[in-house]
Amino acid sequence: MKEPVEILKKYDSIPKIYRYTFWCTFLIGMVTHLYILTNKLPTFDDMLCLNSFGGSFSLGRWFLGILGLVKYKILGNYSMPMLNGTLAIFLIAIFACLVNAILENDNILVAMLAGGMLVVFPTIAGNLSFMFTGYYYSFAMVLLGGGVWLIKSGKRIWRLTAGSFLLTLSLAIYQAYYPLAIGLFLVILILDSVKGDESVQDLLKKAFWYFAGLVIGLLLYFLLNQFWLKIMHMGMTSHKGVDQMSKMSLQELLGRISMTYRAFLRMFTKNYYGMTGNIWIKLAIGLLLMSAIFILIKRSASMIVQKKHLECALLWVFVLLLPIGIHSIYIMVNERYLYTLMIYADVLLFIFPIILCDKIIRCEKIEGKISRVMGVVNWLVTIMVIFSGIFYVYLNNAAYLEAELSLSAAKSYYTTLITQIKSQEGYREDMEVVLIGDNRDGTVYEISEDFFQDIDIGGIYGTDRIVKGIDKERFMKYYCGYDQNITTDISGLVEESWLSMPCYPNDGAIKIVENKIIVKFSEVE
User: Is the four-CA dihedral 326, 332, 335, 337 of positive or negative sign?
Assistant: First the structure.
């Protein structure tokens, strides 16, 4: 048996590109997200999941349920920012290495830029805001990367089966990363097509092989999902439409496919789920997309000259399918349920152009037709990716600042409310506190009105949503230290005793009725 030190020596045998990619991604991730790793910035769900891994079996996330239950029995599932967040970033760094292996990239600079984008993209900030489960989601990325790599790396059935099963496990942790697998396969096919050294038959065989892996992974997921629902005696909930993934008419399917293309336009007309918050990032994305299209058109012209007409046509079939693949989340889930965590496949819009650029330059060198214009485009793409990465580092930290200010406001708000409750004449600590209605206090200052208009990262919420939408009972207990019996059940109250009360924060919105402390936030419909 080898000694531990001998195993560590194996590190030197890892190719340099993967060592550089891992450490670059990990260090950029740690610096970018240090704010949320060193502060407790709770979301709504964190109130419910301070020692939990969140929804699982009933949401179709049965592998998350298995992992969570095992860890809960051994160590618990505490929402610990530094430990959980560091583990999440560590796993993303491994995923970055897998992405570079999948795309057969051997350019160290390109690999490090790709890894950097993977860890600073706004989806990761949203992911870390759900600190109790974020590292599970990062593990889903690693499983997805491993699955795509296995399916892509050979024609043996065992690789297809094993890769599809890894995709199944990834889906069973978080379904919304599946479009990333589709996008990666299409990028592989595009890159193989532009190289021009494979026949149409070979490319079609690869396409059907990849498609088979995706379908097998999806079908296996649905089969095992039904198995675990029966084992756990549960049914699928309607959370964000997860129970409707396999129920869709042909007309609705065609409508959703058209949305995958319209999504590109939305990136430039509004803040696309926190991804395009101002004109500069929209310009960067626009330049990246135009550069990629220019490169593809230029390469197509070269292929036509070489009389590779069918290969050129197939290339553009893959290109036209790419928007559907990247935005296939629109097909999986109704648009109204989408938010930042579900658009991670859009990170390929930054990675694809820079890898495509590098591949084309290498092809031109082999063919002895090095183009000066490609050098200019390469510089443009590189600068835009670096700018985008810096922009997202800034955006993420601005979002974390907003979250901290909103949390401070919520603490102050509910501390004041607790003081008012305890100041009621006749107050006793054994009294039950009854909260009536939803908090609609118009005096709550919304920090985003003045400072954070461009930030819309799913999971990181502004003051108004923190104060009014948060789990009040748990927030008052965990963050204000108030452990009095609190309920929202009004069935035991005589309606006349509270119906005429004004709404909080107006005078008289808190009073003792029937030996209970009533706090009326709003009228009950």
Answer: negative
pLDDT in tens, 287-335: 999 999 999 999 999 889 888 899 999 999 999 999 999 999 998 888 8
And the tokens for 377? Answer: 């485009």
pLDDT given for residue 196 in this prediction = 79
Q: Are 285 and 263 in contact (CB under 8 A)?
A: no
CA–CA separation, 324 and 182 (whole Å): 9
Q: Following CA atoms 282, 287, 293, 299 in sequence, which dihedral angle do they give, to the nearest 10 degrees?
A: -160
Take residue 60 and report the two structure tokens written for it: 């179709």
Question: In one letter, which amino acid is 313?
Answer: A
In angstroms, the CA 45 to CA 392 distance is 24
3-state helix, strand, coil in the chain (%, to 5): 70, 5, 30
Other Cβ atoms less than 10 A from the Cβ of 230: the count is 10
Q: What is the pLDDT of residue 492?
A: 77
Q: In the chain, what are the domain boundaries?
A: 14-400, 426-520
Kindly report, residue by residue over 219-228, the tens digit of the pLDDT. 999 999 999 9
Please state the pTM of the whole predicted model: 0.93
250: tokens are 């042909």
Q: At what angle do helices 108-120 and 122-129 cross, to 10 degrees?
A: 40
* Dist CA 360 CA 194 (whole Å): 7
Take residue 163 and report the two structure tokens written for it.
């890769």
3-state secondary structure of 513: strand
Q: 279-305 vs 250-269: helix axis angle to the nearest 10? A: 120
Q: Residue 264: helix, strand or coil by DSSP?
A: helix
Contacts of 398 by beta carbon, 8 Å cutoff, 6+ apart: 452, 455
Q: Does residue 244 carry a pLDDT above 80?
A: no
| pLDDT of 239 | 58
Element spanning 210, H or E: helix 200-231
Residue 57, judged by CB atoms within 10 A of its CB (0-12, 13-18, 19+), counts as: buried
Highest average pLDDT, of 92-96, 409-413, 454-458, 516-520, comes from 92-96
Q: Which of 398, 410, 404, 401 is nearest to 455 (CA)?
A: 398
Q: 282 Cβ partners below 8 Å, 6+ apart?
A: 267, 268, 276
The pLDDT, as a whole number, for residue 235 is 81
Residue 97 has what pLDDT? Answer: 97
